Amino acid sequence: MGRDHWKKIWVGSAGNMVEWFDWFVYASFATYFAGAFFPEGNDTAKLMNTAGIFAVGFFMRPVGGWLLGRVGDRKGRKAALTLTVTLMSASAVLIAIAPTYAVAGYGGAAVLLIARLLQGLSVGGEYAASATYLTEASAPQHRGFASSFQYVSMTAGQIVGLGLQIVLQRTMSAEALHSWGWRIPFIVGALGAAVVFYLRRNMLETEVYEETADDGVGAGEKGTVKALWAHRREAFLVIALTMGGTVAYYTYTTYLTKYLSNSAGLPKQTATLVSFCALIVFACLQPLAGKLSDRIGRRPLLITFALGSTFLTVPIMTMLKHAGSFWPALGLSLLALVVVTGYTSINACVKAELFPTGVRALGVALPYAIANALFGGTAEYVALWFKDSGAESGYYWYVAGCAAVSLVVYLTMRETRDIDLARVGTADRAPASEPAAVRAG
Q1: What CDD domains has UniProt attached to this entry (predicted)?
Q2: DSSP letter at 173?
Q3: Is the CB of residue 373 less than 8 Å from the CB of residue 58?
Q4: Residue 140 belongs to what domain range?
Q5: What is the model's pLDDT at position 42?
Q6: Distances in Å between the alpha carbon of 84 and those of 91, 210, 327, 370, 381?
Q7: pLDDT tens for residues 178-203?
Q8: How many domains is the chain built from?
Q9: How far apart are CA 142 and CA 145, in angstroms?
Q10: How many CB atoms lie within 10 A of CB 100?
């Protein structure tokens, strides 16, 4: 990979890291600010309220996916990526200055809700713009490796957030954290977004986007729902293949810290440290798995993930609840994240490889955002609902069931590794001599 390719990957990934830092610190710091925006009551009920607002952000993601996917296909990947980080910066500022319940009643929760709606709008477009940009910016034989940096940067954002949380936990009192310390990460996120805004204004557009003239999508239809409907099979495929992966991912990342603290009974500091260490290993695994997919294909990794998640979720979650200390909890968390890597490392490029250039950003964004709104965004709320109902183990089966549905999709979908991105959607997608699995049709 040349210097220009690495530069594109770095700029796209750096912005993605800040975006997801802001997105995830909401979840990781929720245990500290839940009481700031709602009246006194049951701790689980407070977490459910903040988790509900967290889920609302996901329901804005389809809107963001449509709006920013359209921008990405019509104006370019650079334009979409610059706009997403602007919206995320605004949302971080709103959360940082939101008034508490004691000051403004439910007005503070309303500000929090608006901020989450902006975050949902931003992330709804960020995922697709980043996935499309990283996939298109790499050489064909390195697409799996290059696109894996999307989840490296996503995880890095969460690692930085958790690292900041660990520092604050060790340098501030619990009272200070609950009172005002939780605002610090959102201030940091806003400042980081300003830096990334500058970087993205000077980033390079992908050659695939600039050079593709005839991909079966007319100039006036680029980034439109009408053009996407012509590829509705691929759009529904994205929803189905995302279902199991997004539930598992959010279970073992954003929800894990709260599960270890609220259900397994570990101290907050220990639960945070477990997540922090596990995510560092998880981030390092992404490029390795992405590179493996460039050699053996995408489907073997997806199938491995689905099998592992279907049959291992219940025992892993059950043992995590009774882990009791740092090392057993870390070992089980790592096992779960190794399984999830089969999905996270390559799902970005798999989705981008399904669509022609003129509708690629929208084709990835909208169906992926819908799947996340239905399954990823509600995962934490569903988990807390099962817990509050006294049937917490039901959530383990829910995660396994979602993975089982995606397993069926992985077993029946075509391989996408060798698809030519510039020719997806054209009448002549692959030479007749090539295997059918290689063809885009």
Answers
A1: MFS_KgtP
A2: -
A3: yes
A4: 3-201+231-417
A5: 57
A6: 11, 21, 38, 18, 26
A7: 888 989 999 999 999 888 888 888 88
A8: 1
A9: 5
A10: 17
Is 387 inside any structural domain? Answer: yes
Give the C-alpha separation, 366 to 353, whole Å.
Answer: 15
Contacts of residue 280, Cβ cutoff 8 Å, sequence gap at least 6 = 159
Dihedral sign, Cα of residue 369, residue 439, residue 411, residue 291: negative
Is residue 82 within 8 Å of 58, Cβ to Cβ? Answer: no
In this predicted structure, the answer to whether residue 43 has a pLDDT above a threshold of 70 is: no
Task: Give the mean pLDDT of the chain.
Answer: 87
Q: Note the pLDDT of residue 207.
A: 83
pLDDT at 217: 67
Cβ neighbors of 432 (< 8 A, separation 6 or more) are: none
The helix/strand/coil state of 325 is: coil
* 8 A C-beta contact, residue 28 and residue 43: no
What token pair was written down for 409?
């999709």
Do the domain assignments include residue 146? yes
Radius of gyration (Cα) for the chain, nearest Å? 21
pLDDT digits (tens, 9 = 90+) for 267-315: 988 998 999 899 999 999 999 999 999 999 999 999 999 999 999 999 9
In a domain, 280, yes or no: yes
- In eight-state DSSP terms, residue 155 is H
Answer for the pair 192, 21: CB distance below 8 angstroms, yes or no: yes
Distance CA 166, CA 145 (A): 31
Which ranges of 202-231 does DSSP label H, i.e. alpha helix? 207-211, 225-229
Would you state the structure tokens that stand for residue 366, as one six-digit string?
A: 């909208």
Token digits for 4? 């220009």
Six-digit token string for 49:
């309220």
Q: Is residue 427 part of a domain?
A: no
Using CA atoms, how far apart are residues 68 and 88, in angstroms rounded to an integer? Answer: 13
- Kindly report the backbone phi and psi dihedral angles of residue 222, in degrees, each rounded to the nearest multiple of 5, phi listed first: -60, 135
Enter the pTM of the model: 0.84
Cα 19 from chain centre: 10
Q: Minimal CA–CA distance to 137: which of 343, 295, 357, 291? A: 357
Residue 57 sits in a domain whose CATH number is: 1.20.1250.20
The two tokens of residue 282 are 């998880």
**Tokens at residue 316, please?**
């892993």
